[in-house]
Write a structure and sequence with these properties.
- The complex is a heterodimer of chains A (111) and B (113).
- Chain A is an all-beta fold and 111 residues long.
- Chain A contains no helices and 11 strands.
- In chain A, the strands form 2 sheets. In chain A, strands 2, 4, 5, 9, 10 and 11 form a 6-stranded mixed sheet that branches. Chain A has a 5-stranded antiparallel sheet with strand order 1-3-8-7-6, with no helix packed on it.
- Chain A starts with a strand and ends with a strand.
- Helices cover 0% and strands 50% of the residues of chain B.
- Chain B is built from no helices and 11 strands.
- In chain B, strands 2, 4, 5, 6, 9, 10 and 11 form a 7-stranded mixed sheet that branches. In chain B, strands 1-3-8-7 form a 4-stranded antiparallel sheet, with no helix packed on it.
- Chain B is globular and about 40 Å long.
- The chains are: A mainly beta (111), B mainly beta (113).
């Protein structure tokens, strides 16, 4: 079983749609959680950290459920510019803070 | 402007040749990392270094070597022992103690001919 698993995708949605990505992690000692965005042929960039209380940044909402070892990312009112691959990332301090990346979920927003 | 640079952007290698990928940062970060990304997959850690003249193997270190002679530089050599070297290679850096916040370079695409 992979340490971090994401929805396989790709997700093809029209502009304005709401889309949700799911991610599960296997290491219960994981302590930090993130969503990164990666554009085609570019480096990943941090989109947002994920906190237990849930957090929101504009149209983006991230949720964490430690009991279920589950992370989600919700994008509301999707824009063409949201088209990218979204990477779920987990860090465990018992692994020296090493980042473990999911395989990514591709999103394509169409006009 | 502070940041991480990687060169070259694209690199072609003949089978059996060693090749070195460059990574330089001027962020004054102590920690640096090398990842490999294959199509449809997440990033996998090759090597990392938290201090000059010291580095540790990541999950897929076989066929790779690194050096850390300067804080700013962390070159990666892909040796002929790496059986499937064609991939996208990403370098990152962070402040020690905040390893979860890593800054990535633009990457190098290596293609073995």
């Amino acid at each position: 079983r992979k340490e971090v698993e994401q929805d396989p995708g790709p997700f093809n949605v029209p502009e304005g749609a709401t889309v949700a990505f799911n991610c599960t992690y296997s290491n219960s000692a994981s302590q930090s959680f993130f969503w990164y965005r990666q554009d085609c042929r570019k480096e990943p960039k941090l989109l947002m950290s994920v906190y237990s209380s849930g957090n929101e940044d504009g149209r983006f909402t991230a949720q964490l459920n430690r009991a279920s070892q589950y992370i989600s990312l919700l994008i509301r009112d999707s824009k063409l510019s949201d088209s990218a691959t979204y990477l779920c990332v987990v860090a465990s301090y018992n692994q020296g803070g090493k980042l473990i990346f999911g395989q990514g979920t591709e999103l394509s927003v169409k006009p | 402007d502070g940041g991480i640079t990687q060169s070259p952007k694209y690199l072609f290698r003949k089978e059996g040749q060693n090749v070195t990928l460059s990574c330089e940062q001027n962020l004054n970060h102590d920690a640096m990392y090398w990842y490999r990304q294959d199509p449809g997959q997440g990033l996998r850690l090759i090597y990392y270094s938290q201090i000059v003249n010291d580095f540790q193997k990541g999950d897929i270190a076989e066929g790779y070597s690194v050096s850390r002679e300067k804080k700013e530089s962390f070159p990666l050599t892909v040796t002929s022992a790496q059986k499937n070297p064609t991939a996208f290679y990403l370098c990152a850096s962070s402040i020690v103690g905040t390893e979860e916040t890593q800054y990535f370079g633009p990457g190098t695409r290596l293609l073995v001919l």
